[in-house]
Queue: 2 jobs
Job 1
Amino acid sequence: MDQVVRIRNLDKSFGKLQVLKKISLDVDFGDVLVLCGPSGAGKSTLIRCINLLENFSEGSIEVLDKNIKESRENLKYVRKHTGMVFQHFNLFPHLTVMQNVTLAQIHSKKMSKEAAIENAKKQLCQVGLSQKYDAYPDQLSGGQKQRVAIARALAMDPKIMMFDEPTSALDPEMIKEVLDVMISLARNGMTMIIVTHEMGFAREVANKIGFLDNGELLELSPAKEFFSNPKSERTKDFLSKIL
Amino acid sequence: MRLGLSFLNNLMFLPIVLAIGIVLGMLIAIARIKKTPVVSQIMILFVEIVRGSPFLMIVFVVYFGLPYLGIKFDSMQTAVIVLSITATAYLSEVFRSGFLAIDRGQFEAADALGLSPFNKYILVLIPQVIKMTMPSIVGQLVMTIKDTSIVSMVGVVEIVRTSRQIMQITHRPIEAFGIVALFFVLVCYPLISISKTLEKRVSR
Amino acid sequence: MLDFRLIGQYLPDFFSALGMTLKIALISGALSLVVGTILGMLSLVNNKAVQTPIKLFNGFIRSSPLLVQLYLVHYGLPTFGILLAAFQSAIITFTLNTGSYISEIVRGGLNSIDKGQYEASKALGLSWFKMMWKVILPQVFKRILPPLVSQLSYLIKDTSLAAVLSIQEITYVSRSVSSTTYKPIESYGVPMLMYLIIYILFSLLSKAIVSSGKNPARVKVA
């Protein structure tokens, strides 16, 4: 297994509107892939296809050598070994921070309660929230909620972490604390796919950058090249507006 | 056939019951929001007692209980009275929340323009309340239609009573009661749909 | 004034009638919660073959009087060979009736849950069952508690129709006591008081739930 994720010729439409057009890309172990592009380009949709939160009509996606549409077992396996962080956190409001992080460990990975709690403590400590085990989501700030969400996903020991615009719903002063967590994850070798508008962050941490516009993957290059030598006109146009 | 005609007896109640219900309900609602000293307390008592008691119970009290106190109502009168008080009580609550939902500014603007209380209500506030609470008014209409079935228990000649008689003769309960149910459904279901549509329009 | 001695004499009857009313309400209530939750959850299924009968059923229940439903069950079912005692007919009818209303409440509750909750659960690999049981339903029930309590309050009033089948609940007994004693104030007064006290208790319960909703009751899970 060389690649964590292999996407081939992915097509997806919402009704008559085609939002993904023949997308193919690979994500290798250790890659930190940032997907950028104008709103509505299909970046979120693409990342959500990887764990089949969105279905697609044509093409194939293999994660950890398993074709996600081939069988239920494959899909279950993939979801247990990938982590996803959402723009709007999606923490479970009726559970404490600790319960949020242990729930899936116990009920999806069938770990024992003690092991789950131990692991949860570790993850929460790493994201800087060891003081908040018994707090409820509505008692936390946006940045704290997102960090809990990251811990919740990390607790599953995923082989790849996917981030769908993780800082877009945050107030500016809280963006940094979340990006810092993501940076340290990347430095520790986690394979990551990140949909974001934070190009400064991308420059610091990404090793590959993909540019999507109108459902097409217009560019996929090593980070340095992407910024210094963008190939298509639309990419250049986009970069000039952002940077 | 007979069933169809006796259903008209059920529907016959509606105009007068609804008229009384809306008018009195509105008056009670206004009395309560103005918090007029004695009147509103009595009204609260009245409304809560009616809302807290089962319909059949109230029917029995009026039809069987009052005669011992010297007040005799025949079955038709009982029906009209009980249906009206019930509609009034529930509608007064509907209207009351309607008034509370209207922006304070409406009251203030009306006062600032020098409108008399009477005009204020008739011209400005009541129209808004009625528009806002239309879905609930239709809902109450449906409730009243269904409640007319219960007055059959004190001998009012309406569809349910007629169907019981038919059933006793023909021994075919499914047909008898099934058709009754059908009549009600044919009337109530469209009304409920209208109510839902109104609700969607109002919440815009 | 009030004939208290008379009241005392009939108090046992009133209380056993109260017991019957509560019995009917509790049994029907519990069963209708089950029925309602199942039907409500079925509304999530996108299959027309599932949706249509449910919609027809709900439409029928809401558009026809409870009394007629009672008759259909009690007098109608025997034509299919199912003989029912009055008590059973009452329970079945009330369960179906209240169950239908509860299913609408549950359906509303399920629809009000943010899609993101479903997505996060799926992304974490939770099975459908675990997702519903541990994440979705706890949130739904907290939200629908007030309308659920109201529905139960209506159920208590509905039980008075059981009198039509000669079941000895409060309304029936009040009439028989009144026709025996010729004293309507006492005969109807006590039962009315019982209904009103129950009604007030439900109102208070509802208010208590709503205010504790500001500091949401927490759920023990995992």
Job 2
Amino acid sequence: MEGLNKLAIGLALALFAVLAWQGLQKEPVQPVAPRTGILERLERGNDERLLQPIPQQLELDPRKLALGEKLFRDPRLSGKGISCNSCHPLDGAGMDGRSRSLNLEGGQDVMNTPSIFNVGFYPYLQWRADQPDLEAQLDAVLTNPRHMGSTWEAAVRSLMADADYVRDFEEIYATAPDAATIRDALATFERSLITPDSDFDRWLRGDREALTERQIEGYRLFQDYGCASCHQGINLGGNLVARYGVFGSPYKHRPHPLNDFDRGVASLSGRSDDRFMFRVPGLRNVAVTAPYFHDGSIATLDAAIEHMGRVQLGLDIPRQDRAALEAFLESLTGRYRGRKL
Amino acid sequence: MTSETRGLWLQYLLALLMVLLLSFLFAGSQVDQDAYRRVDTLLTAMRDRVTTVNQQLIELEAATSRNYDRLSAAEVGLRDRIRHLRQRDLLTPLLGAEGSEYLARLENAWQRKYRAIEGFKARNALHKNLIYYAPKDIENLLGRVRDSKVLDSDEQRDVENLLYRLGSRLFVNHGHRLVDDFGLSEQLVEAQQQLVVLLPDELQPASNRLFERLRLALLVEGQLVSDLQAAAASALDEAILALQHRVRGRLAEEVAEARKYRMGLYLVGLIMLLYLARMFLKMQQLSRNLESSLSELEFQKRALDEHSIVSITDVKGNIVYANDRMCEISGYARDELLGQNHRILKSDAHDQGFYREMWRSLVGTGKWQGEIVNRARDGRLFWVATTLLARCDEQGRPWQYIGIRTDITAQKKAERDARLLAGSRRKTRIRYCAWIVPDAFCMRIPPAGCCSNIGVWRKTSGCCRSGCR
């Protein structure tokens, strides 16, 4: 009889244990997290206007932003004395102002450094649209021997040596710094780099005094000349890949010899359809991000407008129209942390 | 191993087997529906995005100028979800190796669609511009022909007619579509050749640019239709749908399988329930039996207490129980007795041999019977007929002794009186002996024939030293 009692209690306990174990095994349901918050918002929004103002604020985790900014300015990530900020200075226009970026050997690299401002609005990055998002872009830049020339292992090791970083990462991510968390902090910070409140944005929001007569005329011309067919959307470009040089070669003026990268997307895909296809650059802050084009071959805005008219539209845009267009493009210069770029 | 312990082990083994069976059945009856729901939601969201992309593409094709951001956002949403599926490896736990096949098919379809969309976006933008500028180019040329000093009015009219005809032929479709049919390309070549003849040299570049633009527009337009078809192709949607069907089918299969296990679980649960019910009834029966035994025992104990003097000691002789009659006869209160050694009742009337004999019997057979004289608290001696029993533990070592006694003092007195009476009728030597223990009858009983040899007895026992003369 005692044995039977023990058996019953044992069975009950065992059943309970099995149930409890099963209960513990079940992991909580994780929602599918949309990562690119800004684009998701655009997707939900119903604004069909050709051009949209940049939002004045983004809801991003302030702790991640502080950490991301620290990382952004930290040369230890490369271990070669340069940080993200070296080529994308935040107190400048988010690019280095050189026709082509410097590489680690001190020579010129192949492409012009694009500005890092408003980079979170792009559906893909780089001149050849080969990086799908900021995280992938970070991987590419950090490990490229010509750019930062580091590895994630080395970067993580150098951060682990700093107790402040380890504490910050513990607080925010509840883990020690690793490639994924560093990427997330940096990418989050980069998404926060927006330049709202340009004259044009204020005009779009209804401030009729924000643009001069000439700038409004420039805006009309911008649409009439068909610039807006490609340079549209929130960043006035950057959301499609287009052929550079519809009417004749775009390289006639080029001082330095052509290389493989000048073939555009074709240099990656090898398809003849992709020849001279480049990502249409966004025109936000264009007046302060000279020189222009992927090869940095044109130094002034006026020359760039003339060049575009000739090779993309097959037109010689008259001088006074160019001046109006330039005035309009100058109204696209926004503010970062209240400072006009 | 005795048969009883073997039975116990068997029961434990059985219990273990039952638990294992239960766990097995339970594990089999579980379906991780969350994992399925997660993937299903993801796939539904992807299909939504495909719909958005296709809708945007068609709108783009029709509109003159349009914001590409929403299309891009839908593309990114789609791309991110496919990547999420790959990175989190959500399909393998559900579909196994088959999952990666479906995923590869999905990614392949997406790659093709993505490339087609990008191609369409680029060419659509280009086409819009080309078409937009073609009428302006014609207008521009017309103006310059009218202003021309070189051409006479007849020549001007010929060129104007040519250009008007060309314009009306080109833009039948509200100006945003050229339709390359009824030999439009040949007509363009013909018109260009006529203009080469008609126009002066200074207007040739403008004319050439017009025809270049038109030919490019026609070329792009030809590709645009196939681009749109490729971009809006249903391969991706079909791949997503196929995967969703497979995932839902797999869930249904798993649920059906789990139902079988659940039936087993119910069955085993029922058996256990019956078993427990049986055990409960048995225990109830047991407790009833115990209760009746207990009351019977209680009754017997009461009877014993009424009749006998009962005490229990531990193995060292310390009293742990004494009944009322024990207290009464010894003259001690119960509190005084409990915890005391039984020696406090010792009367010194028995010799060492007596006790040795008693212990030998007690240890050897577990019981002893005999008559003892004890001393009460007030010094009074009393006789008891005693039965001692040893209570042994599992190893056979005694750990308690119980003593059951009957007061035989009166009987002893009667015996002595009888003996005295008988002795008084005999010779004086016997009278002597009985006489010497006047009130407390000599506690060491003189052996038979003592009184015939009182001197010997006196020497060996030391008793009655004062009394025997």
